[in-house]
Structures are given as structure tokens and as C-alpha cells.
Amino acid sequence: MTTAKRDAEQPAPRQPVADVIREAITRGEFAPNQRLVEAELAEQCDASRAAVRNALVQLATEGLVERVQNRGARVRAVSLEEAIEITEVRMVVEGLCAARAAERVVDEDKAELREIGEQMRTAVSGGDVWGYSELNKRLHSLVLRVSGQQAAHEVLSRLRGQNVRHQFRLAMHPGRPTASLPQHLAIIEAICAADPTAAEQAMREHLRSVIDALPEVGGTRFNAV
Known about the structure:
- By secondary structure, the chain is mainly alpha-helical.
- About 70% of the residues lie in helices and about 5% in strands.
- It has a 3-stranded antiparallel sheet.
- Keywords: DNA-binding, Transcription, Transcription regulation.
- This is DNA-binding GntR family transcriptional regulator.
């Protein structure tokens, strides 16, 4: 049997249980304060209860889950005040990443950044809020990747996971895409111009606008997606 054939017959590696639950939380499939029942998660993840228990312990250290004595685990709710603090940290870290991306950017990155910018324009002009939200995530992820800042990647992954519900409410807020589009385009142009100072400033100004807008949507009802 050839190596290629053997590889084809092997099942795909199973995704770690913690990753499955983390993604479900960040997608909003579980509501804030919702109980996470080990037996149900074990069935959903096709894993043992011990594996689920270990995953919940890991997610508790990340701030996504909280364990309540004699009551098991539940999705940790993040207050508006904490959401603002998280975004303030993001403002510093992502500002650094934007500056580093401007120092490291190559032509291929510039083309991808500008393509995302054009798609964002199209999404806003067409009223495609969902599409714009996904492009927003792509842009921030691309800036982080181009920056080469691995430590920042780990920090931001945890912060975004904790803050996902507030981010979703803000993304769905009427008029938000129109307000944030020029901010995103400014980030793109500063990085493509290889201007670290302008890139950092553009990213910080964008996230400052997020901080300013969060109280406007803090009391709106959240529907899981």
C-alpha cells in the first residue's frame, strides 16, 4: 500500500474538545450564564465526559467559562464595563500590530488588504451587514498575521472570545458599518503605505470609536447566532 493511499484511508484528526466548545461560545450558540452540561457536551462533541471536564477547566482559565460550586459550569457573562476595558487593551495591542504590519507588508499582502477594502465598500453600499462583519474579522486577522506578532495573537484570541457578544451587538447596530468603513480603509491605506505611525494611529482611532459606541448598544437585546 502506498503512503498516499494509507494517508487517504486515515480519518481526519479530531478537533480538540476545548476548541469545539470555544468556537460554539464565540459564535453565540450558548447564551451568557447558560449552564454547560457535561453529558450534553460529551454527546455533541462525541467525547468522554472527562475530556469535556478538562476542556471546561481550560476555557475557565481563558475567561470564557466560569465554574460555580455545586452547580457545574456556565458561559461567563461579560459586563459593558469589562467589554470597554477589553477593547482598551485591544486598542494598544492591535495598534502595535498595525505598526508592525506596516513595517513587514509585502505586495501580496497589500493586494489582499485592498481587496478586503473593496469588498467592504460593496457590502456597505449593498446593506450587507453580515458580510461586512465577516470582512471586518478577516481584516483584523490579516493585520495580525502580517504583523508576525505571535504573542499578540494569543492575547487577542482570548480577548475577542470574551467580548464576542458585545462585538456582535455593535456590528448589528444600525449605521455602524457606515461609520467604521472609513476607519478600516484608513488602516488599510496606512499599512499599504508602509507607514507604521499612521497605521497604529488609524487602528487606535478605530478601536476608540468602538469604545465610544459600546454604551449605545450595551442595553440592546442579544440574539444568539
